[in-house]
Amino acid sequence: MTTRDRARRIGRAGMAVTLLGLAGLAGVYVRALAYTPVERSQGAAQKIFYVHVPAAWSALVAISVTGLLSILYLWLKDRRIDLAAAASAEVGVAFATIMLTTGPIWGKPIWGTWWTWDARLTSTLFLFLLFVGYLVLRGVLTDPGIRGRFSAVIGIMGLVLVPFIHLTVYLFRTLHPAPIVLKPSAPSLPGVMLVTLFSSLGVFTVLYVGFMMQRYALGLLRELREEELAGAAG
Amino acid sequence: MRALIRAAWHIAVKDLAIEWRTKTAFASGLVFAVLVLAVLFFSRDPTAVSSQDIAPGAIWVTFTFASMLGLNRAFLLEREQRALDGILLSPAPRTAVFWGKFVANLAFVGAIQAVSLPLFVLFYDVPIWVRLPELVLVIVMATVAFVAVGTLLSAMVVRTRYAELMLPLLLLPFLVPPLVSGVQVTARLLEGRPLSDLSGWLRLIAGFDLAFVTLAASLFHVVLDE
What we know:
The structure holds 2 protein chains of 2 kinds. Chain A has one domain. Chain A starts with a helix and ends with a helix. By secondary structure, chain A is mainly α. The model of chain A has no long low-confidence stretch (mean pLDDT 87). Helix content of chain A is 80%, strand content 0%. Chain A is globular and about 70 Å long. Chain B is mainly alpha-helical. Chain B has 8 helices and no strands. Classes of the chains: A mainly alpha, B mainly alpha. Chains A and B meet through α4 and α5 of A and α6, α7 and α8 of B.
């Protein structure tokens, strides 16, 4: 099987996974809107939570995957790892955009402000900006070897930067709701809501995998095309 | 180890000698710093906000912009007539190139800061003399962070056509922790708060310095390898 066939196959499989994720997303919407009770103090605005938190989850998974693949790339020097890291970064930026738009929509009625310089908001904003920079840098580098190494450096540095930014703003002040699921004691979310949240988390993870596979296949095909063009020109 | 230090020293001296002969980058960096300080003075309502209130922010924004100007210079210099190839062909190890550039950048940015700090006092009328040692300490710590990350990133962006544009885009997210800490420590020092009030921020910059100097030094060869 040629690389092109393999890339197309990954792309098709990614499409199937994405469709599955989209069907799941429709299910999550129905469940969240019709079958999950309205939260008493926040009202309907709380429903955003079922999209916002999973989007944030997928964005952070995507960006961590980019960081880990960056380390792996510098070690193994396999171009496919670089393509996968880039695919994950791009999908991560897309999910981060969802997170950064749904957050303020919830914040306006609940906090009374669209934006606040809270620890988590600030760290995700800078993380988002850094990974936009990562994608821009990839865009202006033409040599695949240099592109791979340079973006790997940014990926690794970004991974180390996040806790520092978080700590910085934490020392400054914090307002974001405290964790209600991942905390030392039992989750304080009622069971019905917890089920909706977890199914949404699952769906967003499936969507991440589907998008990532498609983007990776696209990256492979693009490299092949560039090689062909370079071959034709030489 | 000795050879590494000597090679790094030669690179730093070479960089500073070039700068000393022309003084172009230093002069423009300094004028730029004065301009930023002057412009920021007017970024407030004088009837509501005193210049002392925005002083800590003003000085650190000035330092940040001036550092960025200096950091771009370090490798743009090497791009002319492919001078970097010459350095890479020399027996100097890659790490020595990093430390040489790091020291030269530190000297360059430090010189601009040393001149703009008295001007800052003059423009903003802030009593820094009482707490000068602490202030110098935090400036040095934050500058080490700026320069370590900046040296690594400027070696990368110089390979693109948009070096001047790419450096701020990639560097600024990394400057958030040292910059915010610098502003907070400066503000508290100017208010005459005790050192114990600042220990959290100082520990944060110290940790950042440790993490990113190590990281930049160890990742530098990845950037330079052909």
